[in-house]
């Protein structure tokens, strides 16, 4: 269901909570500043006067690369104005290598001129209602000219009989001018202090309030297996000297596999502790300056939950694309990565779990990285990926991304190689605002209230550290068997399939959890049970904590009793403690069962059965009840009564997040089972649901009509005739107008300009309204390449940018003659193809320059023509509009 009408519905969904950021793992860093849009009681929702009174955090942000930092104030302002007009909420500035030919305009990172440009951006962003974050460096990871070998990334020296370190001489990747240099030691707070001193000098007179936060990219400190304090901290943590075991550690002396695994487990524990200290020091520095921090913890050799929780905003990353079975969603083999690991929801949930358990309101995601090859991404491809992020607990989207490009740069402008081109020069930039409006509506709901998850899943990271192979172990978003093939991942996957709402929890956050009246209270909220998967290794203190919670009345369920403690240090002492606790397990009140899901059912833990209908979703608690985001990411239509875990005694309000239309849903109470909603969701569609927990929970709710449910009452009527096609926007030149009787790709016509055109064509058709009466009519555009702005009889209907390309048009239709106008925008692929076929030197970036999705030199000259325009068929289907009871009896 789509409508251009904006309503007040999201007022009911999006009352934001006042959530001050704090650290989540001991020892906590200083308290972070409160975000401007976290004022208590603030309502984030559309209003009739302003169309949408949304905060900048409600809106999606984008990573904004500055090539060579060759920026100027006029072009910065021009691009920021385009961002604001398109509905973005903010930017994250990351300087990178520059464009060829622009060397005279490069600005050294953190120089007075660079700081002047940053201040200009901050002030212009304030004027435009945008926020600004920045990476604490250029390229990635942290490092630069201020780092000497002593403070740089180090590795264990090879061909030595003792353990000692040596610089591995890794340089900052994709560094910008003034940021080139050695990579920082990610385990050394001393090295970090030296690194940050350069920022302190540069920011001495900078107005701190112009920045919201600082950003740390994923852990790509390759080969970081050593740090000067490793032996000292190892000894403090584990009570013995790692150097005494150097021969065994390096494989020079035979040792049994269990002993070696324990030794390396202690080593990995030490690296994890040192990296967490490093990130806490970075966060504390940012907080002292009045900034929050976003951190991508994945890839790190530590407990990712603790590292994510240490940040004010945990940030995950989606790399590549998912083969959703949505009809019409293309995923061609030549447009995706050949060796691609699919984005994994369980890995994403580590980030949102950390936020939920630690009490952080926002969880962000680097979004749409390498969704398809360059210029092959349509807006329709982005929606299901983003929808799944929403259902996995992400509520702060960061596009990956947008490149600063001067206004006088030849098309396509300056570019970054690993990106979906969310760029004003992309053909679909005009339609981009519709995607952003959708994201903002959903995020205004998902940022409000609090999580409503019932189950905690303990993550036994020590099982990963207990491995005789290798040295440092990184836990990244690629090759994710470290989670999916472990008992915790398998258990979590089963919970997802059954509709149980859960979060992962670490040892450290479990230590901060208490039981009260049967509930488990974490720093971020309450849960009803904790599940412990079949863990081989568990610290004695963790087992003791779980038994303590069980004795205090909490529901603690073990899939299997843990086998032993991890590590080698003080082994017999810790084993004795562990065995004592293990002996107390049967009398503690905790349950040990090989079927934990059956135990959840016996304990009457809520589950959302909409998963049985092929829907994905997330439930949130609000001051007035509950809110849901539901998405159909499957292949078939969902239509019928769908159970929900929330009581529908006072009804449920549905909101279409694409257009904002709202109405009371059909509800029924079964008495013997969960209450049920009447839902109609086509593949690719989504809905917001508000469930009040009391009558009159919000007096505004009474203003809404019943939700319109539709069923066809006749066969689709094909709209045929002569289509007038004129080209209104794009390039390299506007082709001549056409008149056609049969819809097909415009690349198939005789005019060769059409084969290289990237932009927008206006299709106009005069037609007679279908005979007979109907409550409404559904306009179906069929195959659209790739988005369509719809006008009927001179009135704006909607911008269709996602699947399915359908909209109800009955109120725009009139008896007799009608005029349909469709502004259809294609991909830029054919225009790029033409540049490469003609040898135009548009790939002008330095360093890696421009590569394809498989990291090979980019060359589009051999691409086949990409179908473009309106392919149809275009039909009108008469509908019967009916209503179910808007309030549950």
Brief sketch in words of this structure:
The chain is an alpha/beta fold and 889 residues long.
Overall form? globular
Q: Report strand %.
A: 15-25%
Query: With helices defined by DSSP (H or I, 4 residues minimum), what is the helix count?
Result: 18
* Ends apart, CA distance between termini: 26 Å
Give me the side-by-side strand order of the main sheet.
Answer: 1-2-3-8-9-10-11-12
| Biggest sheet statistics | 8 strands, parallel, barrel
| Strand element count | 42
DSSP helix fraction: 10-25%
How would you classify the helix and strand content by structural class?
alpha/beta
Mean pLDDT across the residues is 93
Gyration radius from CA atoms, angstroms: 28 Å
Low-confidence stretches: 1-31, 35-51
Give an account of the 3D structure:
The protein is of the alpha/beta class. Helix content is 23%, strand content 23%. The strands form 10 sheets. Strands 1-2-3-8-9-10-11-12 form an 8-stranded parallel beta barrel, surrounded by 5 helices. A 6-stranded antiparallel sheet has the order 13-22-23-29-25-26, with helices on one face. β1 (61-67), α1 and β2 (90-96) form a beta-alpha-beta unit. α7 (304-310) crosses α8 and α15 runs parallel beside α16.
């Amino acid at each position: 269901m789509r409508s251009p009408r904006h309503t007040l519905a999201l007022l009911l969904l999006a009352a934001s909570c006042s959530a001050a950021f704090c650290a989540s793992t001991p020892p906590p860093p200083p308290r972070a500043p409160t975000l401007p849009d976290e004022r208590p009681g603030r309502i984030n929702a559309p209003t009739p006067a302003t169309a949408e009174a949304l905060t900048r955090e409600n809106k999606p942000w984008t990573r904004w690369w500055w090539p060579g930092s060759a920026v100027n104030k006029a072009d910065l302002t021009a691009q920021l104005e385009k961002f604001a007009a398109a509905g973005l909420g903010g930017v994250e500035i990351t300087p990178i290598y520059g464009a060829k030919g622009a060397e005279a305009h490069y600005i050294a990172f953190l120089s007075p001129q660079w700081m002047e440009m940053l201040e200009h951006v901050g002030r212009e962003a304030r004027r435009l209602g945008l926020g600004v974050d920045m990476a604490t460096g250029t390229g990635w990871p942290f490092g630069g000219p201020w780092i000497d070998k002593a403070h740089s990334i180090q590795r264990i020296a090879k061909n030595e009989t003792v353990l000692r370190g040596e610089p591995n001489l890794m340089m900052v990747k994709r560094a910008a001018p003034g940021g080139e240099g050695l990579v920082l030691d990610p385990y050394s707070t001393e090295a970090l202090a030296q690194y940050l001193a350069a920022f302190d000098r540069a920011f001495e007179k900078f107005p701190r309030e112009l920045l919201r936060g600082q950003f740390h990219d994923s852990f790509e400190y390759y080969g970081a297996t050593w740090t000067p304090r490793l032996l000292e901290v190892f000894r403090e943590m584990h009570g013995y000297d790692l150097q005494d075991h150097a021969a065994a550690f390096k494989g020079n002396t035979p040792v049994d596999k269990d002993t070696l695994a324990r030794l390396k487990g202690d080593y990995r524990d030490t690296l994890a502790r040192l990296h967490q200290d490093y990130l806490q020091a970075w966060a504390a520095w940012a907080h002292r300056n009045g900034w929050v921090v976003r951190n991508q913890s994945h890839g790190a050799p530590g407990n990712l939950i603790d590292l994510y929780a240490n940040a004010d905003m945990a940030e995950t990353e989606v790399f590549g694309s998912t083969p959703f079975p949505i009809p019409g969603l293309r995923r061609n083999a030549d447009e995706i990565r050949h060796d691609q690991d699919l984005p994994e929801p369980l890995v994403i949930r580590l980030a949102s779990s950390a936020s939920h358990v630690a009490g952080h309101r926002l969880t962000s995601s680097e979004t749409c990285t390498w969704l398809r090859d360059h210029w092959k991404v349509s807006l329709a491809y982005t929606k299901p990926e983003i929808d799944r992020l929403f259902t996995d607990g992400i509520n702060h989207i960061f596009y990956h991304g947008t490149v600063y490009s001067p206004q006088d740069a030849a098309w396509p402008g300056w570019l970054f190689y690993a990106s979906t081109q969310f760029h004003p020069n992309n053909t679909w930039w005009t339609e981009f605002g519709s995607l952003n409006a959708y994201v903002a509506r959903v995020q205004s709901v998902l940022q409000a209230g609090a999580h409503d998850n019932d189950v905690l899943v303990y993550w036994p990271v020590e099982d990963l550290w207990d491995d005789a192979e290798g040295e440092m172990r990184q836990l990244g978003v690629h090759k994710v068997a470290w989670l999916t093939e472990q008992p915790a991942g398998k258990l979590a996957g089963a919970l997802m399939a059954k509709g149980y709402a859960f979060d992962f929890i670490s040892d450290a956050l479990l230590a901060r959890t208490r039981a009260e009246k049967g509930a488990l209270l974490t720093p971020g909220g309450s849960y009803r049970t904790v599940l412990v998967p079949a863990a081989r290794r568990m610290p004695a203190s963790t087992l003791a904590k779980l038994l303590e919670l069980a004795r205090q009345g909490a529901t603690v369920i073990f899939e299997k009793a843990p086998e032993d403690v991890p590590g080698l240090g003080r082994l017999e002492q810790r084993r004795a403690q562990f065995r004592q606790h293990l002996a107390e397990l049967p009398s503690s009140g905790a349950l040990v069962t090989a079927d934990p899901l059956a135990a959840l059912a016996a304990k009457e833990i809520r589950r959302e059965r909409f998963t049985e209908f092929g829907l994905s979703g997330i439930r949130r608690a609000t001051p007035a009840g509950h809110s849901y985001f539901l998405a159909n990411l499957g292949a078939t239509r969902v239509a019928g009564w769908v159970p929900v875990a929330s009581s529908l005694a006072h009804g449920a309000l549905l909101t279409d997040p694409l257009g904002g239309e709202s109405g009371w849903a059909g509800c029924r109470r079964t008495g013997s089972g969960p209450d049920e909603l009447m839902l109609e969701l086509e593949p690719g569609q989504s809905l917001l649901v508000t469930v009040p927990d009391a009558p009159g929970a919000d007096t505004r709710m009474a203003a809404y009509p019943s939700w319109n449910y539709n069923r066809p009452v006749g066969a689709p009527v094909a709209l045929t005739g002569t289509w007038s096609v004129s080209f209104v926007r794009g390039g390299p030149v506007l082709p001549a107008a056409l008149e056609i009787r049969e819809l097909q790709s415009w690349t198939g016509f005789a005019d060769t300009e059409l084969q290289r055109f990237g932009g927008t064509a206006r299709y106009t058709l005069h037609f007679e309204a279908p005979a007979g009466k109907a409550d409404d009519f559904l306009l179906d555009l069929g195959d659209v390449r790739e988005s369509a702005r719809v006008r009927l009889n001179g009135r704006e209907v909607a911008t269709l940018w996602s699947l399915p390309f359908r909209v109800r048009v009955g109120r725009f239709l009139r008896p007799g003659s009608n005029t349909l106008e469709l502004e259809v925008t294609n991909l830029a692929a054919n225009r790029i193809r033409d540049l490469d076929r003609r040898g135009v030197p548009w790939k002008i970036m330095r360093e890696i320059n421009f590569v394809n999705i498989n990291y090979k030199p980019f060359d589009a000259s051999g691409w086949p023509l990409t179908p473009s325009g309106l392919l149809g068929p275009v039909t009108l289907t008469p509908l019967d509009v009916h209503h179910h009871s808007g309030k549950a009896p």
